Amino acid sequence: MEVESSYRDKQLVEEKVFKDPVHRYIHVRDQVIWDLIKTKEFQRLRRIKQLGTLYLAFHSAEHSRFNHSLGVYEIVRRMVANFEEYEEWDHGNRLLALSAALLHDLGHGPFSHCFEKIFHTDHEAFTREIILGDTDVNKVLSRVSPEFPEEVASVINKTHENKLVISMISSQIDADRMDYLQRDAFYTGVSYGTFDMERVLRVMRPSKDEIVIKESGMHAVEDYLMSRYQMYWQIYFHPVSRGGEVLLNLALKRAKYLFEKGYAFKQFPKYFIPFFQENITVADYLRLDEMVVNFYLQEWIHEEDEVLSDLSNRFVNRELFKYLPFDGSVITENEIRELFIKAGIDPDYYFFSDSFSDMPYDYDRPGMMNNRRPIHLVKADGRLKEISSQSAIIQSITGVKRIESKLYYPKDKILEIEDLNVKSELINLLNELA
Amino acid sequence: MEVESSYRDKQLVEEKVFKDPVHRYIHVRDQVIWDLIKTKEFQRLRRIKQLGTLYLAFHSAEHSRFNHSLGVYEIVRRMVANFEEYEEWDHGNRLLALSAALLHDLGHGPFSHCFEKIFHTDHEAFTREIILGDTDVNKVLSRVSPEFPEEVASVINKTHENKLVISMISSQIDADRMDYLQRDAFYTGVSYGTFDMERVLRVMRPSKDEIVIKESGMHAVEDYLMSRYQMYWQIYFHPVSRGGEVLLNLALKRAKYLFEKGYAFKQFPKYFIPFFQENITVADYLRLDEMVVNFYLQEWIHEEDEVLSDLSNRFVNRELFKYLPFDGSVITENEIRELFIKAGIDPDYYFFSDSFSDMPYDYDRPGMMNNRRPIHLVKADGRLKEISSQSAIIQSITGVKRIESKLYYPKDKILEIEDLNVKSELINLLNELA
Amino acid sequence: MEVESSYRDKQLVEEKVFKDPVHRYIHVRDQVIWDLIKTKEFQRLRRIKQLGTLYLAFHSAEHSRFNHSLGVYEIVRRMVANFEEYEEWDHGNRLLALSAALLHDLGHGPFSHCFEKIFHTDHEAFTREIILGDTDVNKVLSRVSPEFPEEVASVINKTHENKLVISMISSQIDADRMDYLQRDAFYTGVSYGTFDMERVLRVMRPSKDEIVIKESGMHAVEDYLMSRYQMYWQIYFHPVSRGGEVLLNLALKRAKYLFEKGYAFKQFPKYFIPFFQENITVADYLRLDEMVVNFYLQEWIHEEDEVLSDLSNRFVNRELFKYLPFDGSVITENEIRELFIKAGIDPDYYFFSDSFSDMPYDYDRPGMMNNRRPIHLVKADGRLKEISSQSAIIQSITGVKRIESKLYYPKDKILEIEDLNVKSELINLLNELA
Amino acid sequence: MEVESSYRDKQLVEEKVFKDPVHRYIHVRDQVIWDLIKTKEFQRLRRIKQLGTLYLAFHSAEHSRFNHSLGVYEIVRRMVANFEEYEEWDHGNRLLALSAALLHDLGHGPFSHCFEKIFHTDHEAFTREIILGDTDVNKVLSRVSPEFPEEVASVINKTHENKLVISMISSQIDADRMDYLQRDAFYTGVSYGTFDMERVLRVMRPSKDEIVIKESGMHAVEDYLMSRYQMYWQIYFHPVSRGGEVLLNLALKRAKYLFEKGYAFKQFPKYFIPFFQENITVADYLRLDEMVVNFYLQEWIHEEDEVLSDLSNRFVNRELFKYLPFDGSVITENEIRELFIKAGIDPDYYFFSDSFSDMPYDYDRPGMMNNRRPIHLVKADGRLKEISSQSAIIQSITGVKRIESKLYYPKDKILEIEDLNVKSELINLLNELA
């Protein structure tokens, strides 16, 4: 593919817009961006839900990563438009920032969190591979310059030397988070994700290595961080959504087990084999979207293997496990597993202990490396102040990690235990945990 | 299944709510409704998009019929709550109205409009079959009474003797339309679907055979009808969405043709065969949701048959045909087909003429039977007036049918025509149509 | 005041923004605009309600013309930003358009419609006088150039030779209407004023003598015209609001009458005298805002004159007259007046017949001069089409004038009529009209 | 006035609604509520702005206390509707709660905060006097029962024995705050006031002495408290709004001073005299609304006294003082006053030090009496937990008082100081404070 010197700057004859319910309109003028959107790798993001199994808890959260990716692009486009009047901003980085924003989620697979855990994939690594591999996206980016794909990939992977551009897409107050908080709030119908993005954009200033916030914008950032906190606990960590992931996890674990045992599948898990074997090419990865995963789960309902059939059926028809809070203080996980075994219920497929945590804001301090760069306020005189030192509200949540653990199990199977002593022992125990 | 006398009236211990971005909350108190929502046939509606291929034009329109069905139920729930204070309303019909509202779209298949045209299915007939067949939904309804499934089905099919209940779910101002106008506007991000539903609900009165509108509510109904008009022309008939249907239509037509010819599919169209043969059981029908259809289309990209592979690829990766207005005045459809043949392009798979029309409001008059019942305003003295006789705006759109025709073809194939004379003839012709 | 050559182009060091609930933010960068906003004549618009007595019908409609004027300015600012890329737009007219937009309502007095009718004032004439007179606004404008005040005034008065700039502020689809429809809908809480302004702005193109609309924007303009239609009939012509104007009208008429008769006011109507005498200077005019009018009305409750006291009390404490539809078919206005006189109720102060009409869209045709310039769609080839010739919906409302008449009277005074025959005659008559 | 046994329960023939932009509709069915709304004392609240001088900072915040009072009533109406299904709620208190909600702000005077400080009035005391005095409101309430006015007044004054009803209207999570946060956010156009009121209402439970919150509603309450925190610091304490109060304060102080000195006013401050003398009857109090205050300020611009004229002019035409942060560390207030005197600027009228503080949430603990009752979460087993003990976010703001002080002065007068040494000394000082 020949590099065209003019391609980088090529503009569409007329601006194209996408009607968007969150940002009203998404504006595209660059030929490169337009061409990237049309690639099949980017179109594939229509087949990956932004919020995985969350639709099981919030029925209206059915939007895709395609949707979100356009939104992140649009926010960066507005950031850049504001930054152009500051000398700290190098106009030459405009297309890099826009492209990285658009493509930042390119490597997400179906039900990402779940798949990453069970098959040890890493969406950031795959984003890189897709951008650098034999793909339409790579062809478009290479027309800009031979180095451009690597540049875009390294911004997304946070290894690019331009820390300012990285901070626009991944930092504690970046376009990614600003889009998903608003978008996910919009689709779920909750009010928690509301903050004044237009104001946040107005108080952002480019500096050498990061976006900084004009001091007068502190309250707007507080509001944004509180939104984030609320969205995590009210939406993203919803135990019903986790319950969907648990079923998916267990069903895939069973399918892998059966595959390894040489079980004769009615619907052979062709596309899953590279995942089972943890030897996945870009092509394998791109093929397995949520349409495909759902197709297999629906098929596996009809398998002879009762465990696979049952777990698949539960996932497809939303017959979720029950959940209870669990902190290990009353009884250990192993002790429960023993009891399940005694009751004739296989804890490998009918018991799951899930734990999740969040830290709404933090920054690296001596002895506490978590790779989080602080949000800085900039004073009128140019001095920077880490934001939690200026805001009591933010200070109160800085570095505070909240952990919640839940235990999942099928209530119906408990009720069917034949040994009445074991049954009542288990029921009493679960009541105690509730 | 034994009928339980109390099941009809059984209430949940505590009201359940679904957070909904359009109606804020959807409230469920009836055990029957709760049980219906949990059936696998109702859960299946999560895998059918409310707007089919419209996401190709409006990226954010990815919501399901599950979503919409809950909304229609909620609107009827509010209608009933208002109606309870009128003697014209028989409280005994409450559960019938709620159930029919919830289930009214139960028989929708994947990409309904497209499938109905190509395979001659009828979602209303399948709704009836699902409700009366060997399904979980039927089991729940039968617990209310042996006749209840038939009652619900006949409300949805508009044959029930209670015309008032029918009009709540299907009439020119019903819960179905009120939900989808608002919901589709919400998801696409347009403002056209906005009308004051709370006011419309306040001015609705139950009467013997229909919902009537308090005279003072005329302007609110005007606003609703204008919303409907705008949504049809701006959203539902969007030619890009039609372009997606065109591709799906042609790909399935090719698959059927290949199947009939005995072509050896790499991915055998197992679930499509009953459709190809037009001999479909309820179980066949329920299995073929949009996950499955998408899976096959993605698979067929890899078929040997170039036509099936190409059309599938275009659908999956959104490489749409170009469209032009077409009214047959410059040239006939057949003449274009001839030209395509001369150019070596098969018009059976690479040419499509699509026509669509809408009538925002109408009612049956002598000599004009279109089976539309009028919207009636009710005066203070009880007299009814057909609404277009009272509103100049509505009169102006009453019975006005607007038809638009578009012609679809692949621009890239035109550009690759080898015979330069035919090529330029065809290009000139298409330019003339533009 | 010396003209400064650079003042016209002077920019604020940093953009100022006003948080606005309708347009999110209003952006000011021009020093001239900033200075105009700070003048006392512009600040005075805070003391004039945008919708006069409408708050009596919609309690939340309490916003001022200051509020609306900023909104019109902001819309023109966005129009200009879009127009800058077309050669038909002369950048030199930017400040003229912005200033005229900001100041277009400068001459509105308290409860404008009412005052104009009773005292024969004309807000457009006063806008001109304020701009050209010895005012702070004039001083600011004169710094731009000696001719600038006259230029701004002539745009607002529609006599400027630049018809394009005029059409931005006063035409059938101008910034004034686009702001007030949305703003008044926002404040009253109704959904009728909703249309997609961002889209309308995107399809507007500057042409020699007017703004034209890109053909593909036709539906957006339909939606806007329907909004206008609905707002007029649902909001602006609300009979309760008219009822407030009726009382104000009658109270002022009484005060004028008493003044002319030499009545000894407790609170002498100092500021009203120029109005009573219809000999009003700019200074007189500017002084009489709604604070002052309300103050007098509240004072006049305590006057000896029973009529003035009663009417003032009714206005201040919202004891409105009753209203009935009235078309003169059953009885003439004069016959009712006679009956009121027989009943001992003075029809000059306790009877009012009010008539109002609207035409949502029209344009001048031979034999029908109403000074309305059409909205033109522009085709891809540059040809203009009057919009009603392209849209059935718009055609249906073009030139259709709707008139409604209402009769206002105090129900309590009817109930207190002593002559029982007259009383029952009058009550029967009014019941017949109802 | 005779008590009618049935008046308490009398319902309107048809429900009346007020269209409201915040709550969509406000519903009235009780005759008593309808009659209260029509009283002149309640209508007077249309002439008192909800946010006093805040319109000087947020131009769109022009709404009245009438507006807000209807909103508080509506929220309590919804609370009561929810409470009716709990036995802890005594239906007999319904009308008491509704009436107290509607009337809770009845005693607010013009620019309340300002007037209360300068004239030592107390709006709560005046609410009581208006309800118990010779007023239309008292007449309506007395028709319910002779004790009813006293009951309503004591709920508003928080002395009623029914602590649950009091907590609905005044507590740390009451209908008053829930309305004003949302309403003020709506009118100013900011997003900070957003929280999910429908959810908060759903998790409220009546208990003996207070409203308690179902445990699962904790996050919704967190969100509400954060809204409150943000609204205080971003909106209510805006220094520009304070700057308007400063001018009003100083102008009234001057008027009082002149009155006491026997100054010959052109516009004699008739209605202010009871305030100057701090001997105010209910009738005096009701007369002085914001229309009247504004009228006087506008008049006083034309007074001979230069100080009164100047301060009045600044207030009316928004020529605000400049403000600086001030904490007394660099220089004391007295030292600045000395400097002003040296400069020939009277610090009594041209210097003002303003301090304000807020505590978003607190509750009484031993040794810390601030008369705040905690918000309690109720566990499934009925135990109560003070909310900050359960929420880290709330704990972080509990009892944290934030104080900000600002110093106000007229920049223009500083620039006109004749003694150049004093001038530069003062300018340097002010620069240091900035």
Automatic annotation (TrEMBL), chains A, B, C, D:
Q: Which Gene3D superfamilies match?
A: Hypothetical protein af1432
- What PROSITE patterns does UniProt report for this protein, alphabetically? HD
**SMART domains from the entry?**
HDc
Say which domain of life the source belongs to: Bacteria
Tell me where the transmembrane regions lie. Answer: none
Supply the CDD domains for this chain.
HDc (cd00077)
Indicate the segments forming the HD domain, all copies. 65-181
Q: Which residues form a coiled coil?
A: none
User: Which Pfam families does the UniProt entry name for this protein?
Assistant: HD, HD_assoc_2
Database matches in PANTHER family: DEOXYNUCLEOSIDE TRIPHOSPHATE TRIPHOSPHOHYDROLASE (PTHR11373), DEOXYNUCLEOSIDE TRIPHOSPHATE TRIPHOSPHOHYDROLASE SAMHD1 (PTHR11373:SF4)
Report the protein name in the record: HD domain-containing protein
Q: Which organism is it from?
A: Corticicoccus populi
**Organism classification, top ranks?**
Bacteria, Bacillati, Bacillota, Bacilli, Bacillales
